Amino acid sequence: MNPPDDRHRELLAKRRQLQARRERDACRATVAHELAALDAAGTPYALIWPEQLRERWLGRRFPWDIGRIRWAAVPGSERIPWQDPTARDAACLATLTALWPAPDEALTLVWGNALKPGLRLRADAVRQHLRELLDADFDAWLSSETGDWLLECYHEGEIAYGRLPG
């Protein structure tokens, strides 16, 4: 192999790294406001990049329909209507209380916009920053990292939740 070929490969690798960094920066910018609020409060979190979300997407565990979970196929699932953000937040908090994750339990938050990163953060942080997190996008899903439940905040005025059968 001659040296120009090696240099060419090296430059291509650097280009791919730069492109990946730009894509991640753009992705992070889509939730900059929410991350700034978490950072200001000293709340720990981890970003889950879109390609990682696709690998572990919650719809693989729950039956998926166009744009949302097919709740009719989840035995024992519940739906709570809401009309405004205050009612939405109250319904979401009540649902989280019913699902009862421990305050330090890791939850995954996924927004409806596939270009946004997801977040991994503690249940108490979700409760503390709930409005900011739900206001970040039309739809959001919360799931336990270790449990079998999923909570969906759907933009047409419904909180739905359920557990995997079995």
Explain what the structure shows.
With 166 residues, this protein is of the alpha+beta class. The protein folds into 2 domains: 1-30; 31-163, no CATH class. Helices cover 42% and strands 24% of the residues. It is built from 6 helices and 9 strands. It has helices at residues 3-29, 32-40, 50-56, 85-99, 123-128, 130-135, and strands spanning 45-48, 64-65, 68-69, 78-81, 106-111, 118-122, 140-144, 149-154, 158-163. A 7-stranded antiparallel sheet has the order 1-6-5-7-8-9-4. The protein has a two-stranded antiparallel sheet with strand order 2-3. The relative contact order is 0.18.
Q: Which tags fit this structure?
A:
6 helices, two-stranded antiparallel ribbon, 9 strands, alpha+beta, 166 residues
Helix and strand layout, with pairings?
Blueprint: H1 3-29, H2 32-40, E1 45-48, H3 50-56, E2 64-65, E3 68-69, E4 78-81, H4 85-99, E5 106-111, E6 118-122, H5 123-128, H6 130-135, E7 140-144, E8 149-154, E9 158-163
